[in-house]
Amino acid sequence: MDKDELHRIEQEFYSGGKITWLHFLLADKPKIGEIIQRDAFNEANKIMENLVFRKNAIRSIESIHVYHHPGSGGTTVACQLLWSWKSKVRCAVVRQSQEINTVCEHAVCLRELDERDQNICLPVLLLLDDCNADYTDDLRWELSNAIATKKISPSVLCFILLICKLSHDPERKLRDSPSQTVAVTHKLSDAEKVLFSEKGVQLKLKFEPEFIITFVLMSEELNPDYIENFVKKVFRNIDHCSPITRLIRFVALLNCYIHDSFISVSHCEMSLGIGMHFDRTHYHAFVEHLSEEAKLVLIHLRDGATHISSIRIINPLVAKEILIQLSQNSSQGDIAMDLFSDKVLINHRFCRDVFLSFIRALLIRRNKVSRGDAVDTAFSPLIEHVSTEKDGVQKAVDLMTAAFMALGKDALVAQQLARLLYTNLRFEEALKWAEEAKSLLPHDTFVLDTLGQVYKKWFYHMCETMEDKNPSPERSVEIISTALKGISAFRASENKPNKENVSLNSSYYGEADDDNDSNKSRILMSAIDSLQMLFEQKKRQMSPRKSRLVNHFYLAKAKGLSKIVHRSAIGDPFKGTSNERKLKWLGGEVWKTQQVKELLKRVDGWTENGSLFTRGAMKDSKIRIIPQYYASLPNGNENVTFYLGFSFNGAVACDIEVKE
Fold first, then answer.
1. Beta strand pairing call for 124-129 and 159-166
2. Is residue 168 packed enough to be buried (19+ CB in 10 Å), middle (13-18) or exposed (0-12)?
3. Which of 225, 253, 319, 381 has the lowest tally of Cβ within 10 angstroms?
4. What is the pTM of this model?
5. Where are the alpha helices (DSSP H) in 177-242?
6. Is the pLDDT of residue 630 over 90?
7. GO CC terms on record (predicted)?
8. Statement: residue 504 has pLDDT above 60
């Protein structure tokens, strides 16, 4: 690798490109400059040391959370931790596009590779960058089952999940769970300011300041005034009518609202009227068509897996400021409409699915505080912003209508449009779009619910605006008909096919009136077995998250009605944050506490051909019990004891132990 190539690789990172393993490799050689280690890295490193070098693990699966501001280098911190521990533990990166079962299987194989004793293996550090909470929880669940199946000692640390998540308030996340979390913000500590100052001097000897602008912005703690002045300076003499400026508007719109969005170079070439190119050398031809302003704010990316070349704005906050300044001549609604109406971009085949997914997200994805967003929104942030512009609601309706057609009649866009219309009391139009969405997705719960909401809101509106307390028969029929249609839609929503929620009476346990009636006893036990089998068949078709068992009551040592105690009677035997307490419940630590041992009664039972049973009230009767974790059942037929919990899915065995 020659000097020019090394120079280019280093410059790409400091001008806004993503960190890669090549950067770490070259920095270790050293072929390029050392990468700054922020305070968050040192904090995460200490957490890792405490977990890995502890004599006996508290849990088999541990977590470290890295919450970070957009563009603050959170992913870099997580990757640095992975790189620094690569020789001490086994490391891997998890991609959410992979099935959880596959990821779990690979993680277990990685842990046991070339090992003889599964209780003396190096732990596996798994990086989950920007994976959603459901995916992370389901992966933890599958890994827990794998550990239980292999009968690995609970005092052995098997997996560490390094969870890197975007957040608009990382410091609050740190306060919620200080023992497992690090926060990466735009603000620099005094020690970090010294490091950035020294690094800045080194970089300015190699590069012009405008070519390491992301590093310069970080050194300024991404100060809003600095960003505003930077954008004003860059676009001072920009031609607002040029195709390049139009392209910058599109990229800024996507980057402002959709995290990690981009536009492929192929799309850019089509937009600018440049011929199609297929090798890396032609990227320079594309760059030559860019204005000086575009070269300063756009960064070129190349996906290592797909080899797709793309561009984005150097930082999300810069994208937001560009959108603000460039929308002074064209509003965000106009920019979005221009994008959705551009048939060249919409119909371009290369990387089309990804491009359309970004456009779809612009209209459908709502902000959620639970996902790390600053506030909850009723509609997508773009639609909410457009609604505040002049003639905003109609402009938002026109925008979603255009997107509906551009995306090939997308049902969920039609559903969101119906929601927007009924929120603004335009019920007839809302009904039209809700029916359109239903025709495209006739069995979707959310679509059917939206149809019901249209009728419901319309019914309430009719009642509230009714001037005459004694309406005419025709008007009464119209109001009642609207209510009945709403009820019908809601019922259809509840009864949709393949619904994952299991009926509350999946497993009913009753009492025989006559203890001596053996025939009734056989019928009852047969019914219980049938219900259990039916539930288990349903459970196999459900996602891991939906199939989890939640116990609301437990069998206690007391007598009479006091024998059944609510989950709250156990109290909260653990200290710490809610997340830490949740992990201790999931890890089974609750069953080892003295409080639980004194309160709950252990029940005798036995395993038979992979099933768990306990004695019924009748002679020779047996009741099948659902294990909390199927993997916790012993391999052979054994006598066991367990705590008995009661869920909506039936009786559940917790903390199963083989009798000595």
1. parallel
2. middle
3. 225
4. 0.73
5. 190-206, 213-219, 224-234
6. no
7. cytoplasm
8. no
